[in-house]
Amino acid sequence: MSDVDNPYDNAKAESFFKTLKQEEVYLKEYQSFEDAQANLTVFIEQVYNMKRLHSSLGYLPPAEFEAAYASLPRS
Q1: Which letter does DSSP use for residue 43 in this model?
Q2: What sign does the CA torsion over 46, 50, 56, 59 have?
């Protein structure tokens, strides 16, 4: 177990939320909670998972990386 407020415990989530804020939240003005929820859903599903390149995945979007992994021959 690590110390309280250790960012390394949650590094992947912290990285995701940093990206979400910089590339979506800070660029928009939401009129309602429903508006924010709809925009965030679109960003995550259509941009983050389908288009945005991730260095940890060999500069592929997650959907493309998963498809490539699924097509690997199993032994």
Answers
A1: I
A2: negative
Section 20-33 average pLDDT: 96
pLDDT tens for 34-65 read: 999 999 999 999 999 999 999 989 999 999 99
User: Domain coordinates of the chain in residue numbers?
Assistant: 7-70
pTM: 0.74
Query: Rounded to whole angstroms, how far apart are CA atoms 27 and 7?
Result: 25
Question: Average pLDDT for residues 8-33, to the nearest whole number?
Answer: 90
| CB contact at 8 A, 74 and 68 | no
Q: Please give the Cα distance from 61 to 68 (Å, whole number).
A: 11
Return the closest-CA partner of residue 56 out of 7, 26, 11, 5.
11
Which residue from 41, 42, 63 is spatially nearest to 52, judged by alpha carbons?
Answer: 63
